[in-house]
Amino acid sequence: MRKLFLACLAATAFCSNMARAENTTLTIESWRTDDIAIWQDKIIPAFEKAHPGITVRFSPTAPTEYNAALNAKLDAGSAGDLITCRPFDASLALYDKQRLVSLNDLPGIDDFSPVAKAAWTTDDAKTTFCVPMASVIHGFIYNVDIFSELGLSAPKTNDEFFKLLEAIKADGRFVPMALGTVDQWEAATMGYQNIGPTYWKGEEGRLALVGGKEKLTDEGWAEPYRVLKRWSDFLGDGYKAQTYPDSQNLFTLGRAAIFPAGSWEIGLFSQQAQFKLGAFPPPVASAGDTCYISDHPDIGLGLNAASKNADAARTFLSWVATEEFATLYSNALPGFFALSKHPVKLDNALAKTFLSWRADCQSTIRSTYAILSRGTPNLENETWNASANVINGVETPEAAAKRLQDGLDSWYKPAK
Amino acid sequence: MSSAKFNRPPSTRWHILVFLTPTLLIYTALMVIPLASTLKQSLYNRVDDTLTFVGFSNFSKLLFDPIWATGFWNALSNNLVFFVIHMALQNPIGIALAALLANPKLRLARFYRTAIFVPTILSFVIVGFVWKLILSPLWGVAPSMLKAIGLGWLFAPWLGREDSALIALSLISVWQFVGMPMILIYAALLSIPDEVLEAAECDGIVGWSQFFKIKLPLILPTIGIASILTFVGNFNAFDLVYVSQGAQAGPNYSTDLLGTFLYRTFFGFQLQLGDTYMGATIASMMFLLILFGVCTYLFFVQRRLQRYQF
User: Fold this and answer.
1) Chain segment B104-163, per-residue pLDDT in tens
2) In a domain, B195, yes or no
3) Domain count for chain B
4) Chain A neighbors of B158, CB-CB under 8 A
5) Same-domain status, B259 and B244
C-alpha cells in the first residue's frame, strides 16, 4: 500500500514536473474586470503565440475589493505571479514589504521615461518595481460641429481660450463648458490638474514643490486657481449641483461645446456622441510657449516576490515593455496610452490627437499624487475641495492656495 | 402534595440562564466587544511605527488641534442643525399627520397612512438618487414645475450651494422619515380610551382644546420616544449625505456630519489612507455624545413625564 502510494506520488510529481518544463502557467492579478475580454481575446493570445510554453491566465477582482483581496492573497501566499500595480503609495507599500521585486534589470525597462516610471519607483528614484502599462492624458474635448457652426477653431493661448468661451456664450445656444462642482473631483482633476502644469512648468515645478523649493502660494501654483475662477462664468446653469454624469450627458447630448477631459472619456464619448469630436491641449499663456500636459500613469505590472515562475513572469514583463504590447493595448482601450517610448500607431482619431501632444508638450503627473498625499490633511482631497470652492466663488484663489500650503506644512517636511 | 412543593428548597432556575444565554452571547459578540475595542482603540495610536498607549491625546487632538478640530466642530455643528431641523419639522408634522389620521371622519385614512410611511422603508440610495434627480438644475422636475407656476426665479442649485445644501438634505431626510413619528403617535392616539374623550366632551372640551388638553398630554411619552429615536438616528446619520454628496460631503464640507467625517477618517478616501485610531476616536466621541443625550433625556425628561394607566 505504502509503496503504491509512493509510486503514485512520484508519478504525479514527475508528470507535473514534465508539465511544468513544457508549460508554465502565469496568473495575473488585476482590478480591470472591464478589460477581461480584451486580455483574453487579444493580448494573451498574442503573447502565447510568440512564447510557446507559457500560458497566461488573467484573473481580475472587482476594483473596490482589489487592494484588500490582493493583500490577503499575498499574505496567504496564494497571489498570482504578476501583480497589476496601482500608482504611487499603494504599490510602494507592497515593495517596501518585499511583496514586489526590483525590476531594474528587466530587459526593456529602459524604454520608459523617468516620468512614466515615477509612479512605481522608490522615493530615491533608484528602484523601479512595476512595468508602467498605461497612462491617461488630460486636455479638452470639443464638439467639432458646434465649433464649425459658430466658425470657431481650437484655441492655443489662454486669451484665445477665453475669447472662444465668450463667443459661445454670446451665441447663447450652447453651454460653453460642461463642468460641475458638486462632485468636487471634476473641478480638481479636469480643472486644476488639467490646466495647472502649464503654470507650474510641469515636472520642474512638481519636483520643486516636493523638494520644498516652491510653495503652493507661489505664482505658478496660485495662478491656475485664478484661471479656474474665471471658468465659472462659462459653465452651465446650476453647475454647482451638476454631477460628473450630468456633465458627460450635457456634452454627449450636444448641449455643451467643450468638455474639460481626461483621455479615459474617449471610449465612452466615441460611442455616445452623435457628432464629430476634437481635442486641444491645455492652452498656454502666450503663443510659442512650451505646453505642458498631465500624462498620469494609472496602471503598471509587477512581479510577485513569491512567484515560482519568476523567469516566465519576467519574460512576460519584458514583453509588456515592447512595441507590440504598446500597440495592442493602446488600440484595445482607446484613451489608455502605453507609456513606453515606442511610437504607437493608433486607430482612434481622438486618441491619436491626445497622444500627439506627448511629442509637442512636456509630460508631467498629477502634482498631488506622489509623496504629497501621505499625511493629514491630504493634499489631493483638499485640492478637490479648494478647486470646487474657487469655481463656486466661496474662497479666493489666494486663500485656497494658502490653506493648502498651511495644511501641507503641518505634516510634510521636504527632504533637504 | 402541596406541602411537599412548598418545602422544597428553591431549585436553581436553569431556564433563566438558558433563555438569557443566546441573547447575551450574540449581544456581547456583536455589540459589547466591538464597542469596547473601539473605545480601547481610541486610546492608542502609532508613534514611530509602534502601537503605543497615548491616553486621551487622540481626543485632545480631535478637539483642539486645528487640523482635526475644524473638521470635527464643523461636523458636530452641522449635525446639530440637522437634528434641530428634524425636531422642528419632522416631529410636529408627524404629530399633525397622526392627529389627522386618527380623525374618524377622514376618508382613505389607510391609503394616506401607507403612502406617507412608504419613504421610510425605502433605501437611502433610492431616496438620495431620486431627490438628486428631482432637484437637478439640468434635468430635474423641480425647476420646470416652479417655472410652470411662475416661480422659476425661486429655483437654485440647492444641493450645490454651501448655504442651502445642508437644509435641503435635512428636508429630504424629514420627508423620508416623517412616517416614523406619525405611526408611533398614531398608535398612541388610537390607544386613548373613548371614555376619556367622552368625559371630556361632557365637560365641553372638544376640537382643538380637546387635542391640546386631553390627547397631547396622553401621547407625550410617545413623542419623547420619537424624539429620542430622532436624536440617535440623526447623530448616526451617514447614508443620505454619502449617497447624494459623496464622502467629501460637499460643497466645502457644508453637509459633513459626524458619520461622514468618521467614514473618511476611518476608511480613508481617495488618496487619504484610513486612520483607524483617529477613526475610533471619532466613533467614541459619537458614542459619548449619543450616550450623553440619551441619559440627559432619561434623567431630566423621562422621569417627569406622567403616565396614565387606564
Assistant:
1) 888 898 999 999 999 999 998 999 999 999 999 888 899 899 999 988 888 889 999 999
2) yes
3) 2
4) 241
5) yes
